[in-house]
Amino acid sequence: MKRPLAGLALGFMLQPLMALASSQPSTHHFTLDNGLKVIVHEDHRAAVVHSQLWYRVGSNYEPSGQSGLSHALEHMVFKGSSKLCPAESDHIFQSLGATDNAATQNDATVFFQTLPPHALAVALEVMADQMSTAHLSAAHWEGEREVIKSERSESIDNDPHQRALELPRRLAFPSSAAGSPVIGWMHDLDRMHIDELKDWYQRWYAPNNATLVIVGDIDAEQVKTLATRYFGPIARRKLPAIKRPIELTAPGERIITQYMAHQIPSLSMAFNVPSLTTQTDPRQAPALELLSELLGGGDSSELKSRLWRGEELLISVGTHYNGISRGDELFSIVATLNLENLKPLDEVQARIWAVIESLKHAPPTRSDLERARTRIIAQQVFTRDDLQSLALYLGELDIAGLSPAQDEERMQILKAITPQDIQHAARTFLTRDRLTISHVLPKETRHE
Q1: Are 204 and 285 part of one and the same domain?
Q2: Do residues 185 and 256 share a domain?
Q3: pLDDT by residue (tens digit) across 376-416?
Q4: Strands (E), 274-320
Q5: InterPro entries attached here (predicted)?
Q6: Domain containing residue 352: CATH number
């Protein structure tokens, strides 16, 4: 009798979560005459506003030999413009009780602030000036290049975990720039010239290549007036032709072994898979999302219950898949071995394969699937309730070429995914000809 009661309880939990997840936020969309897209979500619960300016350019856009251009340009935009001295925007926002920052991703560069509503006009004026009149001087670039190289050394080269993931990602994307690090390869940073940055700025920093996202205690008409005042005079520009980063469907199994000092043995397995924008069947990405949660999401997931708590082969294991992407994606499994029950990496990898194969031969139980579905829907609800997370969500959707309505369709499909859909996704996508394997071992175990 326990299983029916558990299923009944899950049903009661899902009903309010699904109802909340299906309710669309009251979000306003408009586009200026110069092509700048604006998304405004009004929420008057607290006197705070999150403003974000998204440019459709990131590391996936960069040609060979010029990795890191988008991230370097993000740094240089803060080095002065017609109205601002270098780093002056930081001081302005601090004086207003606000914070500002920026980040570069594979498909986007985003500048963002958290500020009181009365300061929004200042944020828009600053970002409009940076969009149109950034100085990009050679003298500032020479110093900022060293800052970026130091950032790369600290965040990747001196971080065994991050360094272990960098080369396998390059192998996993053999036919596109998606495998290049966002911060760039060190040798590309060494030879990057200010003229390349100026050219990149002229290509991509245009109003018709950007989306302004405003979330919080603000009126949509007020945002429209301010956006028109500060961004409206900036002329649209002809943009380069862009294509989605599409990967080889089945590049063949690839494997790399890396040796790193004082590193606990670990392994990763990354499969080339489609995203919401590249799937050929609308059930593929939602099924992969649920498959990721079933395999390595919560503590009751297959890999964690069997290999972490059960056999105690691992001290950590997790999966990752994000279907909200402009191009093809990776379905990743990352595991760190337990030194107190140390087994060869090949043996642990075989055990992970056994768990995957079990889902191919027998679909998950409905109760396991419902638990995974509940966790995903709950996370969606929490994301949309936090204003900053909601702003990021709206921006990421737009960058991927998706709308909230399309994402709601994804959620409706996710609710209808069956155990057989999960089994089909595992059989179709978790295959050796889509796989990149990385083994990481302590440097002292290497035999020259």
Answers
A1: no
A2: no
A3: 999 988 888 889 999 999 999 999 999 999 999 999 999 99
A4: 314-320
A5: Metalloenz_LuxS/M16, Pept_M16_N, Peptidase_M16, Peptidase_M16_C
A6: 3.30.830.10
